[in-house]
Amino acid sequence: MVPIALLREAGDRIAELHLRNNKGVTPLESFEDGDIDYREIAAALNELKLKLLLVVELAYHAETVVPRPLKEDIRLSRIHARKLFGVP
């Protein structure tokens, strides 16, 4: 099931959303633009008036390029999530 359809069907039964993205099969170092269109998901959350706990989930695999410290990845992920979802 695609994320938007799942949000519409499950609605307020969803308590949290884990934010993670890939480019192809490779997980990204931080939460950033990738294969999943989180702008569309953010718009659907807003339309459905869903207030979920947003959890940035970072996963480093052997293929993930990691040129900066984890603390910086978390900081950049938080900035991106705030921009997309309009949270303080």
Structure description:
With 88 residues, the chain is of the alpha+beta class. It has three helices and four strands. The strands form two sheets. The protein has a two-stranded parallel sheet with strand order 1-4. Strands 2-3 form a two-stranded antiparallel sheet. The longest helix is centred in the C-terminal third of the chain and has 16 residues, at 70-85.
Structure characteristics:
single chain, 88 residues, alpha+beta, two-stranded parallel sheet, two-stranded antiparallel sheet, 4 strands, 39% helix, globular
What is the SS-derived class?
alpha+beta
Query: SSE order, as H and E?
Result: HEEEHEH
Shape: globular
Number of strands: 4
Number of domains: 1
Helix content: 25-40%
What does the radius of gyration come to? 13 Å
The number of helices is 3
Largest sheet composition: 2 strands, parallel
Mean pLDDT: 90
What fraction strand?
Answer: 5-15%
Low-confidence runs (pLDDT<50, min 5 residues)? none
**What is the CA-CA span between the terminal residues?**
30 Å
Sequence of strands across the biggest β-sheet: 1-4
Topology:
Layout: H1 3-10, E1 16-19, E2 22-23, E3 26-27, H2 38-47, E4 53-56, H3 70-85
Parallel strand pairs: 1-4
Antiparallel strand pairs: 2-3
Helix pairs in contact: 1-2
